[in-house]
């Protein structure tokens, strides 16, 4: 039998997992959707930034899964925090996996939660399992390789308390995940009091975000939008988080948490959301388009 070419004690081996005794080095791997890199953080020995073709995708600190580096991920974390009473386990469906930052956060803050992660890039999931292995007593979430919408269509009715959609093809949200038909599937999978939250990206004049808010509101009666003021005012390109539910959303609690972030964000709901949407119409499958391409340098590392 041939020797195993992967030496688990060799830090240069691409299959060598993160170890605090190692000198941090970048790891690069060709995955299904491009070139993935795991970059060390000099301030956090077991933290890594995941990029895909130069675009930051996820950040994980194995020593502190509650540390959410990206502001938009922190905002999704606030949605996790306000989805139910503190510490209560949830049934969570994640569309988009990355380095599993939000599943790790959910497991740490809501022990016993049952989580399922859908990620289209199987080799990326393999890379994360090798380099950033699951920590803590909770079982690793079930991971499924596949298209987010197809996996959503196969999910049972009323099976999730929380559905988090953070799916980008490169730096754009795929068109088939932006429609009324897609949100109807999400609503079907949610339990009566469940929450749907989606990460979007848009810039001036925010036509995509306005249409997405109209799309979610066409299916779920309670909707709020979360973003930094500069993004909401159309001054720059950035992330926006849409939250929808059949029940009232804990907007005041969300707003309080958002105000304490390093880069505070605002919530927009009720009459303010009506004004934000304006004349924008919900998006149907037949007319769907991906989110706009970000301007050069908006989401890439220099």
Quick synopsis:
This protein has 302 residues and is of the alpha/beta class. 26% of the residues lie in helices and 27% in strands. The chain has helices at residues 71-82, 101-109, 122-131, 148-154, 180-189, 207-217, 229-232, 251-259, 270-277; strands spanning 27-31, 34-41, 44-52, 55-61, 91-95, 114-119, 142-145, 160-165, 190-202, 222-227, 238-245, 266-269.
Can you describe this structure?
- This protein is α/β, with parallel strands linked by helices and 302 residues long.
- It has 9 helices and 12 strands.
- Strands 7-6-5-8-9-11-10-12 form an 8-stranded mixed sheet, with helices on both faces. Strands 1-2-3-4 form a 4-stranded antiparallel sheet, covered by helices on one side.
- The longest helix is centred in the N-terminal third of the chain and has 12 residues.
- The relative contact order is 0.13.
* Order of helical and strand elements: EEEEHEHEHEHEHEHEHEHEH
Helix and strand composition category: alpha/beta
The span between the termini is 45 Å
Number of strands: 12
In the predicted model, the low-confidence regions spanning at least 5 consecutive residues are 1-12
Largest sheet: 8 strands, mixed
Q: State the strand order across the main sheet.
A: 7-6-5-8-9-11-10-12
Q: What Rg, in angstroms, do the CA atoms define?
A: 19 Å
Shape field: globular
> Could you report the average pLDDT, rounded to the nearest whole number?
92
Determine the number of helices (DSSP H or I, runs of at least 4 residues): 9
Helix content: 25-40%
The proportion of strand residues reads: 25-35%
Query: Assembly state here?
Result: single chain
């Amino acid at each position: 039998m041939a020797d195993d070419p992967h030496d688990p004690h060799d830090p240069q081996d691409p299959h060598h997992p993160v170890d605090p005794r190692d000198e941090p080095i970048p790891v690069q791997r060709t995955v299904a959707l491009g070139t993935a890199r795991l970059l060390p953080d000099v301030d956090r020995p077991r933290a890594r930034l995941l990029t895909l073709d130069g675009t930051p995708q996820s950040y994980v600190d194995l020593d502190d899964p509650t540390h959410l580096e990206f502001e938009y991920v922190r905002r999704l974390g606030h949605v996790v925090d306000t989805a139910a009473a503190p510490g209560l386990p949830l049934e969570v469906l994640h569309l988009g996996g990355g380095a599993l930052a939000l599943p790790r956060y959910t497991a740490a803050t809501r022990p016993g939660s049952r989580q399922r992660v859908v990620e289209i890039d199987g080799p990326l999931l393999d890379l994360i399992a090798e380099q950033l292995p699951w920590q803590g007593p909770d079982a690793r979430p079930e991971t499924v390789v596949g298209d987010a919408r197809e996996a959503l269509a196969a999910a049972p009715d009323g099976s999730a308390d929380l559905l988090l959609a953070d799916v980008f093809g490169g730096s754009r949200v795929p068109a088939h995940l932006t429609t009324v038909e897609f949100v109807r599937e999400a609503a079907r999978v949610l339990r009566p009091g469940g929450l749907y939250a989606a990460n979007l990206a848009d810039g001036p004049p925010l036509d995509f975000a306005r249409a997405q808010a109209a799309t979610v509101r066409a299916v779920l009666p309670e909707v709020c939008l979360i973003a930094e003021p500069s993004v909401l005012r159309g001054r720059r390109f950035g992330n926006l988080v849409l939250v929808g539910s059949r029940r009232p959303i804990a907007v005041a609690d969300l707003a309080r948490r958002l105000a304490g972030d390093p880069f505070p964000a605002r919530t927009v709901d009720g009459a303010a959301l009506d004004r934000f949407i304006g004349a924008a119409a919900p998006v149907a499958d037949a007319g769907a388009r991906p989110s706009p391409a970000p301007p050069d340098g908006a989401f890439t590392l220099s």
